[in-house]
Amino acid sequence: MATLQKIRNHGVILLIIVGAAMLAFILGDFLNSGSSFFHRDREYVGEIAGHKVHYTDYEAARERLTEVYKIESGRSDFDEETTTQIRNQVWQMMLMDYTLQAQAKEIGMDVTADELSELCIGAEPHQIIRSRRAFYDENGQFSRDNLVRFLHSIENTGDDNQSDNLRQAQTYWLYWENAVRLTRMQEKYTELVKNLITANKLDAKYAFDARQQSVDVRYVMRPYSAVADSLVKVSNSDIKALYNKQKQMYKQTPNRSLEYVCFDIKPSQEDFQTTEKLMNDLKQEFATTDDIALVVNTNSDIMYDGRNYSEDNIPEMYKDFAFGKNAHKDAVTDITFEDDTYRMARLMDCGYSMPDSVQLKLIAAEEGQEDHELGWFTESMLQKQIAEPAFAGKKGTRFNVAAGLGEQTFEIMDVSKATPKVKLAILERKVTPSSRTYSVLYNEAKQFVVNNQTEDLFRGAAAEAGMNLQPAYALNKNTDKVADLKSSRPIVRWAFEAKEGQVSDVFECGDKFVVALLTEISEDEYRPMKDVQGELTLKATNRKKAALISKEMEGLGSLEEAAQKFNTTVQNAEAVTLSSYRLGNGGSEPAVIGKALAINANTLSRPVEGRNGVYMLVASDKKTAEAEFNEQTEVQQLNNRYAYLPYQLINMVEEKSEVVDNRYNFQ
Question: What pLDDT was estimated at residue 383?
């Protein structure tokens, strides 16, 4: 009872404590369960022209494009470079799509459904469609009939149990249909801009007159290199003023610079000996076994699938062995070694002929449906269960292939001319580092990290070991890889999390272990002045030299006097016009050329500052050509010069579209 009374006496305080605890619990649960609300920005890979790109949309687009690559290349696995290319291509298409959409909406421009249909399946499809090999005939030419048959074959019948092949084919078509839409949108936009950016008759007349006026120029040039750097003084304020004046030239995104050392992951001598022994141990079994697929597929880097080789597609090193006059069934090559690889081959069959390609038709499964001509196929283009009966049969033969719970019926419409074929089993083993070798090399790299945790120790240890310190400059957040290092994206992620001067852990980059040193962090909008110091110093020095040379030229009364003073000669440049690129031997000097055409004839100019030095000029024999002005021709020539501007404008639109690229968080 005493305890209950104490609780009653402190009731208000306890209510406050309990209430605070409950509030903390509720808020904690809300913050945890609702973390997607507070961190939903992390779900977006970027923002383009006000449109947020969700990760799932980006990933779905990447998967669609991957399927397209599979169909186009006939491969199902891609290396790091191709995977990166796919990711970047997806982003570029999204960039084009959303920026063009924003522009198109403002000006009322669109690609209608009827227009897109005509571009894709009309009498003359767009070049994007015409260049797809999936629609080629046996002669390698675009076939509209093949295109129509393809579209019929991918029609959605409403069956939820569509095959993976059908879904892949539908994805393939939708991708290229969208590519045509985007390309047509871009074509419309560039054509519109092209019609806006056009020369008029005043432009044409000015350009024509500029070419008609020409002068012969005599000049003396004092190059900047003739003046010793010690004769001029360039201050920090001079360099800073020049840097501020041309700062826009040095715009950049946040970046990192680093240096790294590599430990090659390569097989040891023991690894070579082990692989050689394995090949020798397998040779007898390889030469005599009745189950060649088991022996090869268990031990070889190249799988045996019973394919038929012709002289055109057999590996060159086995051509004479398989098709030579001494070729016979079960012949076996010696074990060879080249490029760290041991090889041997066995001729499983020979002395027979087969066609190189067949033309197939898919027979309708139900009455009332149409058959579909599928086109021409080589053996490697077909699944094994289709290829075997297709290449074994004759023209007009039909065969059935299991498909899900049912069957598909194919008809061989035609076959190419039969050519000699062989079956070849290849047992190939590339020598690779064993787990023991891998462990030794990794420990070596790890020990380097442990012993060299500062910049000075890192550099000193690398120099002592004779290792090359390789630089990588200006890596941004979305840089895919460091230099030519494979699978080096993790190094970039580390660089944006590390501190300047920090040494990384060991990264595995393909066939190398890599340890990096972060040498510079740059978060500035512009490249720092110290990074362009050399360039700025040269420009500022030349400006000082120009002032010094100009002062030396004051009071000189002729070119001959100037030539004598500077121990040089008077040079000539004939028929100089405003369209001239060079001034005689003086190089590219647009300002000097403009001055030459502007001064009075036979009058010595004042010193003229050029790119390469300071000039004194005398213009003579001013001429005006008597060519006939053709306004249409001049306008056309000017418009040809402007042809790049619409495409440059599209790039500018993308740059000005407030693009936020956060892909680095997801790769």
Answer: 84
